[in-house]
């Protein structure tokens, strides 16, 4: 610490054909080398012309492509000299120093030496600490060629800095585009206001008028001609087809909702710092496992209302359906990475730990939740269900289920898609994502949008005497996941330069999993909004 070094020789390496080919591939694909010093990632400072500010790129590139003057052939040059700069902050009281910055400037230099090669004591002509000959440019770069020798060297410089230890992460998290986030929030709020206006209009004007009209003591003739949503009161709480699957989906959605809410609250309060690598993922997995309790409770309460009696089977399905699919996709993708001999593969022990968490904690908690939920009295429907189901009349083209479901997903997706860009960038382009305050706002906007669009479309559906709202309310807001996946595809082709098949499969595999989770989450929000809405309106009309 505090000892500057110049032109330190690490080694001399002779590269063979295979190594030369691999290095050229890595340079072509713009691979970066990452290092850590005192838990700080290594960065390369880059000046931005348009802002007059310095931005930091995590890690330095293995090398660069370029050509010699007067020659058009592209060659690969390796960065074989690193000039490190360690910034430190001196504590006035104790006279100790703490590291607050770790920067590097990489150079490519074709090193020459005089006399025989004597490992680290060799005198280099190109970079000599004794003659104070420092490296400041890459004018004579080191080409990557089979059979050539490459000498690797480094400098270390120390610089005192005013940055305090507590705020040393700020440069990494420097927010360049906060206007975009505010624009995103304003854009989403516009959608929410528009929808809230519609919901308020339906609730106050239309419903109030309907309810007061229905509740007036009508003459006998008027009673014969009931219209609109009151007509289907005898069928509106009839259990839907595949009601078991609906209960499982809703239970899983509640589990997701709890996980995201708890994780985000912790992140907003600053418990999940980006310096704690993998902290966010660990927090999400642990909260997911603990939220199994609520998943079991929600699915069994709904199941009992829909006249289900086999609570153990519904519990098993809630405990295994989504985690089973997720684990299956994850396992296949991991096998692909493993096949590529990548260090990014999840080790077998971690896989085993995940299975233990799932079977040892999550499944028992789902059972406890289910047991508690099933012991509760069943949720009573506000109106009685008729013995014989009504015929659903012919619907207008714009009330077709497929059409309304697809339309319903556009607005929730529209509310989050700008923030989605930043999330995708942080996951796939290795940038830090830490603006959880914005994310929390967007999450709340997403909840409101999903609830409101579902209520609006559910009301129109009931008015046209179609009482099959259960699945439709779930799928209306859940269909936003289709747009999420399509956007992920658009992002893949416009922003990522991925050419390898396995990398593409990884991307789409994980995005499919994320879209599936998003579908279950938004679907559950929409379903509960609609469920409360129908209970509210049918409990406020008198029915003979």
Automatic annotation (TrEMBL):
<feature type="transmembrane region" description="Helical">
    <location>
        <begin position="435"/>
        <end position="462"/>
    </location>
</feature>
<dbReference type="GO" id="GO:0010008">
    <property type="term" value="C:endosome membrane"/>
</dbReference>
<feature type="transmembrane region" description="Helical">
    <location>
        <begin position="319"/>
        <end position="339"/>
    </location>
</feature>
<protein>
    <recommendedName>
        <fullName>Transmembrane 9 superfamily member</fullName>
    </recommendedName>
</protein>
<feature type="transmembrane region" description="Helical">
    <location>
        <begin position="403"/>
        <end position="429"/>
    </location>
</feature>
<dbReference type="GO" id="GO:0000139">
    <property type="term" value="C:Golgi membrane"/>
</dbReference>
<feature type="transmembrane region" description="Helical">
    <location>
        <begin position="505"/>
        <end position="538"/>
    </location>
</feature>
<feature type="transmembrane region" description="Helical">
    <location>
        <begin position="278"/>
        <end position="298"/>
    </location>
</feature>
<feature type="transmembrane region" description="Helical">
    <location>
        <begin position="245"/>
        <end position="272"/>
    </location>
</feature>
<dbReference type="Pfam" id="PF02990">
    <property type="entry name" value="EMP70"/>
</dbReference>
<keyword id="KW-0812">Transmembrane</keyword>
<feature type="transmembrane region" description="Helical">
    <location>
        <begin position="182"/>
        <end position="204"/>
    </location>
</feature>
<dbReference type="InterPro" id="IPR036259">
    <property type="entry name" value="MFS_trans_sf"/>
</dbReference>
<keyword id="KW-0732">Signal</keyword>
<keyword id="KW-0967">Endosome</keyword>
<keyword id="KW-0472">Membrane</keyword>
<keyword id="KW-1133">Transmembrane helix</keyword>
<feature type="transmembrane region" description="Helical">
    <location>
        <begin position="351"/>
        <end position="374"/>
    </location>
</feature>
<dbReference type="InterPro" id="IPR004240">
    <property type="entry name" value="EMP70"/>
</dbReference>
<feature type="transmembrane region" description="Helical">
    <location>
        <begin position="474"/>
        <end position="493"/>
    </location>
</feature>
<comment type="similarity">
    <text>Belongs to the nonaspanin (TM9SF) (TC 9.A.2) family.</text>
</comment>
């Amino acid at each position: 610490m505090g000892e500057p070094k110049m032109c330190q020789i690490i080694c001399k390496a002779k590269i063979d054909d295979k190594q030369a080919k691999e290095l050229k591939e890595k340079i072509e694909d713009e691979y970066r080398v990452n290092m850590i010093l005192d838990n700080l990632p290594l960065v390369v400072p880059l000046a931005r012309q348009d802002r007059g500010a310095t931005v930091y790129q995590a890690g330095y590139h293995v090398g660069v492509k370029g050509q010699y003057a007067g020659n058009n052939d592209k060659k690969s040059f390796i960065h074989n000299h690193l000039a490190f700069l360690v910034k430190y902050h001196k504590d006035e009281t104790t006279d100790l120093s703490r590291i607050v910055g770790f920067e590097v400037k990489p150079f490519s230099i074709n090193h020459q030496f005089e006399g025989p090669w004597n490992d680290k004591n060799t005198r280099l002509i190109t970079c000599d600490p004794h003659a104070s000959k420092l490296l400041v440019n890459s004018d004579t770069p080191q080409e990557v060629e089979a059979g050539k020798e490459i000498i690797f060297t480094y400098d270390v410089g120390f610089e005192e800095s005013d940055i305090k230890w507590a705020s040393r992460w700020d440069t990494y998290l420097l927010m360049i585009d906060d206007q975009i986030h505010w624009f995103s929030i304003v854009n989403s709020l516009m959608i929410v206001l528009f929808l809230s206006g519609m919901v308020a209009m339906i609730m106050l004007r239309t419903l109030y008028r309907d309810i007061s009209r229905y509740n007036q003591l009508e003459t006998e003739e008027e009673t014969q001609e009931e219209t609109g949503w009151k007509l289907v009161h005898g069928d509106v709480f009839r259990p839907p087809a595949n009601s078991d699957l609906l209960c499982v989906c809703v239970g899983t959605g509640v589990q997701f909702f709890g996980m995201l809410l708890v994780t985000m609250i912790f992140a907003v309060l600053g418990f999940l710092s980006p310096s704690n690598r993998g902290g966010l993922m660990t927090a999400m997995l642990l909260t997911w496992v603990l939220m199994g309790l609520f998943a079991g409770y929600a699915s069994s309460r709904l199941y009992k209302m829909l006249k289900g009696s086999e609570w153990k089977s519904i519990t098993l399905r809630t405990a295994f359906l989504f985690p089973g699919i997720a684990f299956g996709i994850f396992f296949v993708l991991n096998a692909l990475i493993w096949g590529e001999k990548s260090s990014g593969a999840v080790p077998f022990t971690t896989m085993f730990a995940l299975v233990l968490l799932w079977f040892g904690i999550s499944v028992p908690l789902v059972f406890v939740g289910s047991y508690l939920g099933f012991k509760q009295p069943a949720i009573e429907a506000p109106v009685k269900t008729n013995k014989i189901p009504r015929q659903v009349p012919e619907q207008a083209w714009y009330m077709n289920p497929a059409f309304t479901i697809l339309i319903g997903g556009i607005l929730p997706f529209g509310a989050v898609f700008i923030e989605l860009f930043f999330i995708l960038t942080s996951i796939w382009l290795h940038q830090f994502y830490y603006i959880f305050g914005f994310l929390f706002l967007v999450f709340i906007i997403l909840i409101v949008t999903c609830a409101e669009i579902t209520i609006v479309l559910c009301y129109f559906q009931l008015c046209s005497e179609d009482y099959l709202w259960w699945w439709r309310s779930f799928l209306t807001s859940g269909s936003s996941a289709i747009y999420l996946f399509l956007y992920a595809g658009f992002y893949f082709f416009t922003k990522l330069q991925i050419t390898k098949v396995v990398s593409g499969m990884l991307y789409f595999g994980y995005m499919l999993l994320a879209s599936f989770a998003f579908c279950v989450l938004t679907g559950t929000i929409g379903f509960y909004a609609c469920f409360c809405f129908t209970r509210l309106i049918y409990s406020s009309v008198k029915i003979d």
